Amino acid sequence: QVQLVESGGGLVQAGGSLRLSCAASGRTLSNYAMGWFRQAPGKERVFVSVITWIRRLTLYADSVKGRFTISRDNAKNTVYLQMDSLKPEDTAVYYCAATRLDGLQTTARVYDYWGQGTQVTVSS
How far from 67 is each of 11, 24, 59, 63, 118, CA to CA, in Å? Predict the structure, then answer.
C-alpha cells in the first residue's frame, strides 16, 4: 500500500506561482510513475503531468506546458509540481497518483493510488 498526501495548494492571483508536494508513505516511490491530475467543479478529472521512475521522462497536458514543472525526489519519497504563470482556469483540486506501470501514463484508471487532493484557486 502507498499513502499519498498532497500539500501546497492555496489562493493565488493570476500570474502567481505555487508549488505542490506529494509525500508518500508505506512504500518507496522509486518503482512508480507519478502523475498529477486536476478536477474543476462540475468537470471530469483530467491529466496534468507525469514523470516516470526509471528515466524520469516527463509529459505535460497542452494547457500547462511551459508553465508547470514536475519533479521527483526518490530519496524523500516526494513528487512536486511547480506551477508558474497561473491562470484562473487552473483553478481545481489537484491530485497526485502513483502507478506501477512505468511510462508516460495519462489515463486515470491505470493509477493504483491517489491522494486526497489539494485545492488551488487562482483569482483574476
Answer: 17, 25, 12, 9, 19
